[in-house]
């Protein structure tokens, strides 16, 4: 599993460590790759709180120019944004990156249209929250992704990613928005 991001503020904090703990209880072979700006000590403290041993996860650090190199090391990714009314309009750039890299993802319900894509385009698993009952209930669906043919799954995710968040589509939408904005002046 893969999580490139921060802990706290807009994102889950210790909940991410507990989420992984509960998934690892379902599948002891899971390893968690975390690429974060936080110090190793900060991240280790979160996982210590969840009683997750350091050999079950890897902490790495990367600038924006190299983060893409980590995406190929994973089979499944995580969007660690808690649900809530204000999250209806938050959309992590990571979703497009995950999909275009061929990765399905875990996300909470109500996060922009990203959760809808996960459910309806079969590119991820949606939970109501990173609470034990929801995470453990999600494992069978997540397991299906781990058991799928990797090449077919990556191809499917990439196709959805390009349609949903591909440069050509977003660039056209940006140009349209700019022309409307400029036209109003």
Describe the structure concisely:
This protein has 7 helices and 6 strands. It is mainly α and 185 residues long.
Secondary structure: elements and pairs:
Blueprint: E1 2-4, H1 14-26, E2 32-35, H2 40-49, E3 57-60, E4 77-78, H3 93-100, E5 105-108, H4 114-120, E6 124-127, H5 132-147, H6 150-165, H7 167-183
Helix pairs in contact: 1-5, 3-6, 6-7
Attribute tags:
single chain, 185 residues, mainly alpha, Rossmann fold, three-stranded parallel beta sheet, 7 helices, globular
Please outline the major beta sheet.
3 strands, parallel
The SS-based structural class is mainly alpha
The total count of strands amounts to: 6
Percent of residues in helices comes to 40-55%
Number of helices, where a helix is a run of at least 4 consecutive DSSP H or I residues: 7
- Write down the CATH class: Alpha Beta
What's the CATH architecture name? Answer: 3-Layer(aba) Sandwich
- The radius of gyration is 17 Å
Question: CATH homologous superfamily name?
Answer: Glycogen Phosphorylase B
What integer is the average pLDDT? 93
CATH topology: Rossmann fold
What oligomeric state best describes the polypeptide chains here?
single chain
Question: Looking at the structure, what is the overall shape?
Answer: globular
**Whole-Å distance between the termini?**
47 Å
Low-confidence stretches: none
- Order of strands across the widest beta sheet? 1-2-3
What count of structural domains? Answer: 1
Strand content: 5-15%
């Amino acid at each position: 599993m893969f999580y490139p991001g921060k802990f706290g503020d807009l994102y889950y904090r210790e909940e991410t460590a507990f989420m992984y703990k509960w998934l690892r209880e379902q599948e002891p072979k899971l390893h968690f790759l975390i690429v974060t700006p936080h110090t190793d000590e900060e991240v280790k403290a979160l996982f210590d709180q969840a009683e997750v041993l350091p050999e079950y996860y890897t902490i790495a650090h990367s600038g924006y120019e190299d983060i893409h190199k980590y995406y190929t090391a994973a089979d499944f990714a995580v969007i660690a944004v808690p649900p809530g009314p204000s999250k209806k309009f938050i959309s992590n750039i990571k979703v497009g990156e995950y999909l275009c890299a061929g990765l399905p993802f875990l996300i909470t319900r109500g996060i922009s249209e990203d959760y809808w894509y996960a459910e309806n385009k079969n590119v991820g698993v949606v939970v109501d929250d990173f609470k034990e009952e929801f995470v453990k209930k999600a494992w069978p669906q997540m397991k299906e992704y781990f058991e799928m043919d990797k090449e077919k799954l990556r191809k499917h995710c990439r196709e959805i990613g390009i349609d949903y968040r591909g440069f050509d589509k977003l660039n056209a939408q940006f140009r349209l928005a700019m022309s409307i904005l400029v036209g109003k002046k």
